[in-house]
Write a structure and sequence with these properties.
Ubiquitin-like (UB roll); 309 residues; 2 domains; three-stranded mixed sheet; 19% strand; rod-shaped; alpha/beta; eight-stranded mixed sheet; 38% helix
């Protein structure tokens, strides 16, 4: 502590007095420089360590977001039609959910979901898919409604009004639960899900199914048979009942001027129904395609399904 004391006299050289005054400042500056260097080094190390930790955290978060897909419960089918059952709705929701993660900034996934959904057999057209702030996703689309079941040797398939095959293969015992008109005798094979079932016979069958769908006797029609042909190869339609049939003739819109038009044929069926409470007049064959109503006894089902008229 002596170097803080003042000299009592003028003893000692000027050089020695200056040494006493200058040495402490130089030593303090040197020490301060070392401390500043150490502090700067520590700060750099801490910054680098913090940056590395933050980087690892962000990478882990990003990886977690990429792998986290949203669930079916987050998909809202805004304009789902009345006929859509739970299985079809779940199928559509699952398709959308599988394409989307919980990354709200991933707009590319929305475009992918739209394209994949529009390619599905149940979907005719997708109008819009939108994310919402509450982690929900809204979907606006048009769907293919099953209007009939088409049967062949491999089973029964649902189709929409255009004849596009929809998902699902059914057996005869399941038809009642489906509650759809049944078309049998189609000569072409099933085209596959999402594809159009070609053939004039199936188109005529779908048209006739739509014509009689709202009639009071519709429940009496067990199937629409399109297997029969006339000599010119044209489809001859028949409404099959439990014990008989109504032979309709050429498809709706194709009969005139050869046969009565659709309105006349419907009027004739209504007349028979009003009298017998059965469109087959009590298990008989009822012809409505000729000049007048003609009723005859029904042969065994196998015989009249295999022959034309």
């Amino acid at each position: 502590m002596g170097w803080f004391l003042k000299s009592a006299g003028r003893t000692g050289s000027k050089k020695s007095r200056q040494g006493v005054r200058n040495w402490p400042p130089r030593s303090a500056q040197h020490t301060l420089g070392i401390l500043k260097g150490l502090s700067l080094g520590i700060a750099v190390v801490l910054i680098l360590a913090g940056w590395h930790t933050a980087k690892q955290y962000l990478l882990q978060q990003a990886a977690g977001h990429t792998a986290a897909y949203i669930t079916e419960s987050q998909i809202n089918l805004v304009n789902a039609p009345y006929w859509m059952d739970k299985l079809v709705a779940s199928h559509v929701r699952r398709i959308v959910a599988m394409q989307l993660s919980d990354d709200v900034l991933d707009t590319g996934a929305l475009h992918t979901a739209l394209a994949v959904l529009e390619d599905d057999s149940w979907v005719r057209r997708v109008h819009r898919i939108r994310r919402k702030r509450n982690a929900q996703v809204d979907v606006w689309a048009e769907y293919r409604q099953p209007v009939a079941v088409v049967g062949n040797d491999h089973g029964f398939f649902r189709v929409d009004r255009e004849g596009v095959q929809l998902p699902g293969l059914f057996v005869k015992s399941q038809l009642a639960a489906l509650g759809l008109p049944v078309i049998i005798g189609v000569r072409t094979l099933a085209p596959g899900e999402g594809s159009l079932w070609l053939g004039m016979d199936i188109q005529d069958g779908l048209t006739l199914a739509a014509v009689v769908a709202d009639k009071p006797y519709a429940a009496q029609i067990q199937a629409i048979d399109v297997s029969l042909r006339d000599r010119r190869g044209r489809t001859r339609l028949a409404l099959l009942t439990r014990n008989g049939q109504v032979r309709w003739g050429l498809g709706p819109g194709r009969s005139a001027p050869i046969e009565p038009d659709t309105t006349v044929k419907l009027r004739r069926i209504a007349k028979v129904y009003a009298k017998w409470r059965a469109i087959d007049a009590g298990g008989k064959i009822v012809d409505v395609y000729g000049p007048n109503i003609f009723i005859s006894q029904a042969p065994p089902r196998r015989k009249h399904v295999q022959t034309g008229y």
